[in-house]
Design goal:
28 strands, about 25% strand, globular, NAD, Thioredoxin-like_fold, repeat, protein-disulfide reductase
Length: about 575
């Protein structure tokens, strides 16, 4: 059974399998489950294919080794979500703890169901008496590492009080001073006392100098810094470089006009946890009193560019000024303002032919942000091509798509673009960066619709095409409202319940819902589903009714099924609901 605290489990029953009373080490040695009876046990649900898992595993390993070296009665058991034994073996080789054998899929699936695992990484802690301590230990380890031990509610309450006290008493010294180090470096390598930053506004700039985000964001931040200096604002920037190579760090240091925390300083990990770092770049704004004004100003700078300096120090009043400017800029938006930058006034066909942007004015244009390396992009592309052809057949002179690639090399770009029937921006085109910032592209595939007047019509074209297909054209609010009325009227004629051969154990009930992944065709859906809540099973009405009527739905190859069934956001890969 599972719950949110107060439950008791028998570790032997949880971890054992048919004729198996042991777990294994990564060298193949067997460890009797009975040997765990006096220990706190962490059940670690993870997978090698999951980026947030690979990011968390080293933190958990450091925590585990720190605690076991102190003879703390702790053990961790890896419950794999990998797709094959080779991936499991490779990933497990990095772990210092035990695992349920990959071959015992029945036990692994039973543990998933027992604790209702909906996202990974997940870490469930159970004490030596079998009492459930927490199902959310990943967050506690990320924030507190070994200080989270013994993972009891009392310890978490104590840590919360300590953190709140630190926030209440925060100063620039408490943020930047670590042990005997009470300085930061200048770009010349000089030690600058932290005391010189007291009474000033300070921006803590988290980034990695080897990332694309560094190349795009740092020049803009440098210009803002210069503008504020010219305006006599009392403002400094302290860079928290996340580079793991000292040569890269030293090279970057000489090029920066900002202060820098020393390479691999132990305060960096603490700052990452303290400010709950979730993305790069991040710019934390500290007030002249040493208190945090904003946890991240990077999105403001990405949206407004160098003009963001006018919003300093990003108070509510100053933000109002920036928002008014942005609103005025949006009202002046045209297709040319989006797609013309100096001599870059064209898009291209696959054969390299340049098409002037002026030829696209007056049409509905979809900006298609995608890449060859992106699994979901490949999965969505056939659907997009199908709906594109349908729209073009009816509106050949008033509709087009422009591919905006996030590929990293020419071969990948050309290979992916070769399957598309529409236009594109060249791979190394400087307009791509501007468009991603303008529309705040955080994930791909993303599709943005621009109307005939050059104004943004919709930022959610992917979902509109998934739900409505070509009928969504021209993607305006008025058209979507019309479609929703049509669907509501159609739903009145659909059966309330059906039996379906893809889910024979229960009836499927017609349910109004949000986005979901259809278990019949593996495509996204929304508005209405034939659902089994008990089994978390969904079918598009089209899939459900076609199959229920005995028609052939066709087959999907299921490629990348496990990954396609998850969405990776920030620090977790979640199953699509």
């Amino acid at each position: 059974m599972a719950g949110n605290g107060g439950e008791t489990y028998d570790i032997t029953s949880l971890l054992s399998g048919n004729d198996r009373d042991y777990v294994v080490r990564n060298n193949g040695d067997q460890v009797k489950i009975a040997d765990l009876k006096d220990k706190t046990v962490g059940l670690y649900f993870s997978a090698h294919w999951c980026p947030p898992c690979r990011g968390f595993t080293p933190k958990l390993a450091e925590t585990y080794q720190n605690l076991t070296s102190q003879s703390k009665p702790l053990e961790v058991i890896f419950i794999s979500h990998d797709e094959d034994e080779e991936s499991f073996t490779s990933y497990f080789s990095e772990m210092p703890w035990l695992a349920v054998p990959f071959s015992d899929s029945e036990a692994r699936e039973r543990l998933d169901k027992t604790f209702k695992i909906r996202g990974i990484p997940s870490l469930v802690m159970i004490d030596a008496n079998g009492n459930l301590l927490t199902e959310k230990a990943v967050g506690f380890v990320r924030e507190h590492m070994s200080d989270a031990y013994p993972f009891t509610p009392e310890r978490f309450a104590e840590l919360k009080e300590i953190a709140e006290a630190e926030k209440r008493n925060q100063t620039i010294r408490s943020i930047l001073v670590r042990g005997e180090r009470d300085y930061v470096f200048s770009s010349k390598g000089d030690k600058v006392p932290v005391s010189e930053l007291e009474g000033k506004y300070v921006g803590l700039y988290f980034n990695d100098s080897r990332s694309g985000e560094w190349e795009e964001f740092t020049p803009i931040l440098t210009q803002i810094h210069e503008k504020l200096k010219q305006n006599n604002e009392n403002f400094e920037i302290v860079t928290v470089l996340l580079d793991d190579e000292e040569s890269s760090f030293n090279d970057t240091l000489t090029k920066l006009p900002f202060y820098v925390i020393p390479f691999e300083d132990k305060s960096i990990e603490k700052l990452i946890r303290y400010f709950e770092l979730r993305s790069l770049p991040t710019l934390v704004m500290i007030g002249s009193d040493g208190k945090t004004l904003r946890n991240n100003c990077a999105d403001i700078i990405e949206e407004h560019g160098v003009d963001a300096w006018e919003g300093f120090p990003f108070s509510q009043e100053k933000m109002g000024i920036l928002e008014e400017k942005a609103k005025a800029k949006l009202e002046q938006q045209t297709l040319e303002s989006l797609l013309v930058r100096g001599e870059f006034n064209y898009v291209v066909r696959k054969d390299g032919t340049k098409i002037p942007v002026s030829d696209l004015v007056g049409k509905t244009i979809i900006l298609y942000f995608s890449a060859d390396w992106c699994g979901p992009c490949h999965a969505f592309l056939p659907k997009l091509i199908e709906e594109y052809n349908k729209i073009k057949s009816k509106h050949p002179d008033s509709f087009e798509i422009v591919f905006v690639s996030s590929d990293r090399d020419e071969d990948s770009y050309n290979d992916f673009y070769s399957s598309m029937p529409w236009l594109a921006l060249p791979l190394d085109d400087p307009r791509k960066s501007f468009l991603k910032k303008t529309f705040k592209i955080r994930g791909i595939p993303s599709l943005i619709a621009i109307g005939p007047n050059g104004k943004t019509v919709s930022k959610d074209v992917r979902m509109l095409l998934t739900e409505h297909g070509a009928h969504a054209y021209p993607f305006t609010e008025e058209r979507i409202k019309e479609l929703q009325v049509e669907i509501e009227n159609m739903a009145k004629g659909w059966p309330e319940k059906i039996k379906h051969e893809l889910h024979e154990s229960h009836e499927l009930v017609l349910t109004k819902c949000g986005p979901y992944c259809c278990d019949g065709c593996d495509e996204m859906g929304g508005n209405w589903s034939y659902k089994c809540r008990e089994c978390d099973f969904d079918l598009h009405p089209k899939c459900a009714l076609e199959k229920a009527d005995g028609e052939d739905m066709g087959e999907e190859d299921g490629k990348n099924a496990a990954q396609e069934g998850y969405v990776c956001e920030g620090d977790v890969c979640r199953k699509v609901e």
